[in-house]
Amino acid sequence: MAKADLLDYEKALELYEPVLGFEVHVELNTKTKMFCGCANEFGSGANTNTCPTCLGLPGGMPQVNEKAIESSIRLGLALGCDIAESSRFARKNYFYPDLAKNFQTSQYDEPIAHDGSLTIELENGREITVEIERAHMEEDAGKLTHVGGATGRIQGADYSLVDFNRGGVPLVEIVTKIIEGAEADAPEVGRTYVRAIRDIVKALGVSNARMEEGNVRCDANVSLRRRGTTELGTRTETKNVNSLRSIERAVRYEIQRQAAILEAGGTIVQETRHWHEDTGTTSAGRPKSDADDYRYFPEPDLVPVAPSREWVEELRGTLPEQPAARRKRLTAEWGFTALEFQDVANADLLDEVEATIAAGATPAAARKWWTGEIARLANAQNVPAGTLVSPQHVAELAGLVDAGTLTDRLARQVLEGVIAGEGRPQEVVDARGLAVVSDDGALIAAIDEALAAQPDVLAKIRDGKVQAAGAVIGAVMKAMRGQADAARVRELVLERAGSAE
Amino acid sequence: MSETSAREISAEQVAHLANLARIDLSPDELESLTKELGQIVESVAKVQEVAGPDVPATSHPLPLTNVFRADEVRPSLTVEKALSGAPAREGDRFKVATILDEE
Amino acid sequence: MTDLTRLSAADLADKLAAREVSSEEAVRAHLDRIESVDADVHAFLHVAGEKALRTAAEIDGRRAAGDPLGALAGVPIAIKDVLATEDMPSTAGSKILEGWIPPYDATVVRKLREADLVPLGKTNMDEFAMGSSTEHSAYGPTRNPWDLERIPGGSGGGSAAAVSAFEAPLALGSDTGGSIRQPAAVTGSVGVKPTYGGVSRYGAIALASSLDQVGPVSRSVLDAGLLHDVISGHDPLDSTSLSDTWPSMADAARAGRRDGALKGVRVGVIREIAGDGFQAGVKQRFDESLALLESAGAEIVEVSAPSFEYAVAAYYLILPAEASSNLARFDSVRFGLRVDPSDPPVTVERVMSVTRDAGFGPEVKRRIILGTYALSAGYYDAYYGSAQKVRTLIQRDFHAAFEKVDVLVSPSAPTTAFKLGEKIDDPMAMYLNDITTIPANLAGVPGMGLPIGLAPEDGLPVGMQLMAPARADARLYTYGAALEQLLEQTWGGTLLSRAPDLSATEMFASEEGAV
């Protein structure tokens, strides 16, 4: 496959305005499927969670999962949507081997939630409000495995196998209105928007929200409008973009690819495209056309969902603080700069930092430890930082440094001990004897020894070359195995050397 | 909303519909179906005569709402029962021939 | 020894309860009868045989041990092949499901088993319930026990023929546009379509979801009521099933046999389907029955339902649309027929298309294509959307009529049983057989078909349809039982006792000038 031409990004933006739209599918973490009582469980043996309904057997009939309705309403509210007074399911008819009934029970003209918005903040501080058209409920399809081809993909496969465990799992599809004005930030807008959705569903507790497990999936629509014109360009839809970084890359790629085609005098084909993580490119899939006649009609086996306004308000009361509002509040409370806050947020450590501060640490110390040493250790071990050490222990550690019991360097050793499971920070300090020596007498003895061993340094200090003290301080710290406050050592060295400050 | 009178249905339309419905019609079937459907469509188009904009549609004979199921696991079919009707299988999964269209 | 096959289900149940006869004996008698006549009638696609005898023996054992048993315990029953049965094939009359044994029971089948009825076998039907004559079965037609050259009605011709040929005292059917009531009319038996949602559809192979209902088929109104009581009730697996607590239909039937049951009852005759243009003998028997009702104290009121003129058209848009979607699941992947294309490439898309072409009959294909058309982009509003509006108008007509009357009546069908092959090449002519029965399905109201005599010109059964407001099924049983009693008094016996004797080796034509 020939690699597509790409126009330079800045050049593309100069000539064209990117117009975006996103469809995000959220997999709900209910116990059972959307329309039957089979378990909604990842990783079970193939076809062990199926029944006449989700297998599409003749005579099977759907029953609506109440928890899924509740989760959908809460998600709609969290996105600032209106919740429909009357909402209906509809059949979306098409044939595919992973679709047990060869129609998907979804929603069409009466979705559960509509007309909301989500304000996101980019790294450069810019705020963008994404208008949300609708959020509706639907069911997932089964899982296909393609056998025989070189890459496990459809092309070149000899046959395919179907597992219907995932068929019928509840999904909420969130559809944005078109997003204009993102300009050069378009790729980041995609990434930030989807991350915001992910944060919301995680905070609501309605989904496991792990993109790598397919709990949150994104389709990105991109079109270009030639500057100075008003018509919208033809859009492409890039599917299966399974990480935040991929969304950003895919949007950027499509902008460059489409711009190159348009500049060469070509036209954009309205089509589905597939993102390839390995090559960082999109490739053409199926053309989207009028052949996509889904023949929607109201699902006759289900009755309308009419959530009472009382129930909706009750659910509104269960919403946690909006992530964006939370960020604003914490930034102010903690006194961080925007950049400092971003560090914490981007590293996904807001919860840990918040808990550490609640346990008594200063915001600065909490941030320093979590985004510094702990993050470093976590990356090295390839585990989430929060699994290494508890916020309570971090707070205790920070407290010991504050009290002068530990230097930073000693504290890092203590941290290692805590992570290794040797106990609380204080216990590690005691067990390893790591406390800073606060007894001047012991220090003086070491200082005198060091000075005696380096008479030239002593002479220099007496001569006024205070920086020479460094060598002695170093020797003393080594002798004390780091268990000394370097600043105090310096004071004492200069005193003992008899030099005036 | 369309105010069209009864349309005739063409063989091309029938072929397109057969494709949407995944039914492989023979040329004879296509011809006789086109004729029969034309007659039927003409007869049923009369519903448009009374279906004014002020008449609401009824999709359910009896007006129920809010019929829900508690989110509690119910026993599924055993794998053997689930696959008992499978025309082709490999292990515990249904086997199908190569797929032409991506989804 | 009484011929057990000639007993009503109620009488058989009484004898079983009194231990005058065992269930095993009763089942054996019916299996013998099936063996004797079903080669000609072809009501059954599958006969349970040994399994039925074992089930019967097991019930006899529990009865002997003194276990409390339900009213119909031990009574055999035939089941329309549209219902999923875990131990018998369920084909819906189609090749695409040939030999398919479901991994589960329909809810109504489970209820039958829990009530200790004994499934005798599965009965023949028009493929996927699309038809009015059972000629569209992929397994060959069923023949009318009154005249084996004639149709038994459809789509549930098998169930109606089974009871009217005394092969089973009871049967289950399904009714989407008259598939229980019209066969009842042309075979001289009784059939009821309950209020939509009154009986669970879980496990009934779906045709048109907003129209289908499962209902009882029998030889008497009381028998239908006893069966109705077993199968009705809320099913959490069917989201369209009603939560109502239903009164006993058997009790309602018994109430109909008391004096004065019809006094002051307002019986509505719907002008648009009162019999004008119907076969003369059908209209005659209908008018005679009205006179009989009047003589018993009922008041006959003429009502009008102008939107009924559009009912057939609306039905033939709604049904195919929903059916085209319901039948999409028959795709060779998870169950049923799989046919590979004879030439490469063998892709799943082609396997699906070739399978469906091979597995579906012409009527099914006709309706799937029509339904796909009615739903397709640009046509939805004109066809499916408009048909749903006609439905509203029909409901309004029923509502207005029931303000003036307690029950509505009409002939069940425009003609008596026509000959096999007579209407098969003219789909529209076939569709018009359902003209009287379709409105009840569109509106969701209950309807009963019961025999009111033989047409003088051909000696074939004529049926009357009763309709009641939604949820008022009990009225059908009370007034139906009352009318049945009046008629049987006039005849000096049941209508079916006049049916030809099938166990002779030749096929009979019925006598002229009966009743």
What does this structure look like?
The complex is a heterotrimer of chains A (501), B (103) and C (515). Chain A is an alpha+beta fold. Chain A has helices at 9-15, 66-78, 186-204, 244-263, 309-316, 323-334, 338-346, 350-358, 363-381, 391-402, 408-419, 425-432, 440-453, 455-462, 469-479, 486-497; strands spanning 16-27, 64-65, 82-83, 90-93, 103-106, 113-121, 127-139, 143-147, 159-163, 170-176, 216-226, 236-241, 271-276, 281-287, 297-298. In chain A, the strands form 3 sheets. In chain A, strands 3-6-7-10-1-11-12-13-14 form a 9-stranded mixed sheet. Chain A has a 3-stranded antiparallel sheet with strand order 5-4-15, with no helix packed on it. In chain A, helix 10 (391-402) packs antiparallel against helix 11. In chain B, a hairpin with a 2-residue loop joins strand 2 and strand 3 (93-97). Chain B is α+β, with helices and mostly antiparallel strands and 103 residues long. The model of chain B is unreliable at 1-6 (pLDDT under 50). With 515 residues, chain C is an alpha/beta fold. Chain C has helices at residues 9-17, 23-41, 50-64, 107-114, 157-164, 181-187, 221-231, 249-256, 280-295, 311-326, 348-359, 362-375, 381-404, 427-431, 438-443, 473-491; strands at residues 44-47, 76-80, 118-123, 170-175, 190-193, 213-218, 266-270, 299-303, 407-411, 447-454, 461-467. Chain C has an 11-stranded mixed sheet, with helices on both faces. In chain C, helix 8 (249-256) crosses helix 16, helix 10 (311-326) crosses helix 12 and helix 10 packs across helix 13 (381-404). The relative contact order of chain C is 0.14.
| Apparent shape of chain C | globular
Largest sheet of chain B: 2 strands, antiparallel
DSSP helix fraction of chain C: 25-40%
The number of E-state strands of chain B comes to 3
pLDDT averaged over residues of chain B: 89
Number of E strands of chain C: 11
Distance between the termini of chain C: 29 Å
Question: Which structural class do you get from the secondary structure elements of chain B?
Answer: alpha+beta
What oligomeric state best describes the polypeptide chains here? heterotrimer
Order of helices and strands of chain B: HHEHEE
- Class derived from helix and strand content of chain C: alpha/beta
Strand order of the largest sheet of chain C: 1-3-2-4-6-5-10-11-9-7-8
The stretches of 5 or more residues of chain C where confidence is low (pLDDT under 50) are 505-515
Which protein chains make the most extensive interface, counting residues with beta carbons within 8 Å of the other chain's beta carbons?
B-C, 59 and 73 residues
Instruction: Using the CA coordinates, give the radius of gyration of chain C.
Output: 22 Å
